[in-house]
Amino acid sequence: MRTDTCEKIKSNKKSTKKSNKQSKSGWGGKRAGAGAPFGNTNAVTHGARSSLAFFPLEGAEHLTPLQALRARNMMLCTWIADIYREHGCAYGDYIGDKRVCRLLALYHGLMWQHVDMIIRITRRTAMAELEAVKQELREAKARKKTQG
Fold first, then answer.
1. In a domain, 31, yes or no
2. HSE on the CB side for 56, CA within 13 Å?
3. pLDDT tens digits, one per residue of 121-131
4. Is the residue at 28 inside a domain?
5. What does the alpha-carbon distance between residue 71 and residue 57 come to, in Å, rounded to a whole number?
6. Which of 34, 35, 59, 76 could serve as 21's disulfide partner, Cβ 3.0–4.6 Å?
7. Does residue 98 lie within any of the structural domains?
8. Could you write out the three-class secondary structure of the chain?
9. Rounded to an integer, what distance in angstroms lies between the CA atom of residue 31 and that of residue 133?
10. Count of domains in the chain?
11. pLDDT score, position 23
12. How far is CA 90 from its chain centroid?
């Protein structure tokens, strides 16, 4: 072995002793307390756990929750389109300004939260309608049984 390779191996052994956060139990995974706390993740920056996700919408008193979410999502889409228009590039193109990239990441995270909530509300509504139809079917079968 060359000396530079031996030196690399020695330095790697030293560094792994210092920074090895894997558990030695054989079960895998990190040991308790290793890494950042659950709430302190990149998701805060990108909107996935942001408190800004469901910002107040003016004049939304007459809207259903689903319509309000869709309106908020459309507002975010407009803001994103304005940013891309301002920088003169197409959607998805790289923008060199880090602040703008962070803002876009935040907006995308917020949009995902809205879409996720829209899916939940729609699914909940569909399941409630399905349960109502099943109940009607049970009642119709019971009436048919008593009549004849």
1. no
2. 3
3. 999 999 999 99
4. no
5. 8
6. 34
7. yes
8. CCHHHHHHHHHHHHHHHHHCCECCCCCCCECCCCCCCCCCCHHHHHCCCCCCCCCCCCCCCCCCHHHHHHHHHHHHHHHHHHHHHHHCCCCCCCCCCHHHHHHHHHHHHHHHHHHHHHHHHHHHHHHHHHHHHHHHHHHHHHHHHHHC
9. 50
10. 1
11. 54
12. 24
- Which structural domain, as residue segments, surrounds residue 135? 63-147
What are 22-46's pLDDT values in tens digits?
555 555 555 566 665 555 555 555 5
Six-digit token string for 70: 């869709």
Tell me the C-alpha to C-alpha distance, in Å, between residue 104 and each of 35, 59, 78, 93.
Answer: 27, 26, 12, 12
Mean pLDDT of 100-128: 90
Contact 44, 62 (CB under 8 A): no
107 belongs to a structural domain: yes
The residue with tokens 């109940």 is 135
Each residue of 63-94: pLDDT tens digit? 888 888 888 889 888 988 898 888 888 776 77
